[in-house]
Amino acid sequence: MNILLALMLILFAAFSRLIPHAPNFTPVISIALFAGAYLKKRYAFLVPVAALFLSDAVIGFYDLGSMAFVYGTLLLIAALGLMLEKKISAGRILGLSLSGAVIFFITTNFAVWLFPGSMYPKTLAGLAQCYVMAIPFFGNTMLSTLIYSAAMFGVYELADKYVFKPKTVQG
Description:
Layout: H1 3-15, H2 28-38, H3 41-59, H4 64-82, H5 90-114, H6 124-162
């Protein structure tokens, strides 16, 4: 495992939150999965939260209740990333990326509905309306998670295999 390469990829992905992008097209879910897969357990949870916190400090913080749901969901997704540890495959990355995006959609939109200031009534119909109104943003969440996961895991595996592994000389 190349810890420096993993941290550089996470930093690069976190920095991408600061450049103009489509709504909900962010690397946060992929960062959490990647950290869970490649970092030691204590850092697998700390690094994605720190990356999100630092980028939020630049972009701007928001409602504390919603932030707690977002950060908590990232911790859950990092735990999912631990399932990839030593069993990394394209199929597992795809499955956990899709699962992470769905979990993020469910939990964070629940938070949008739950906390004061929400434009949705505190009824089941209001919760359903909140989820329905969030569907257009879900496409960007899903697409960004798939793209960032493919890029981060792909670059790491290729670099680790071809750049950082010592070559043997046959003679």
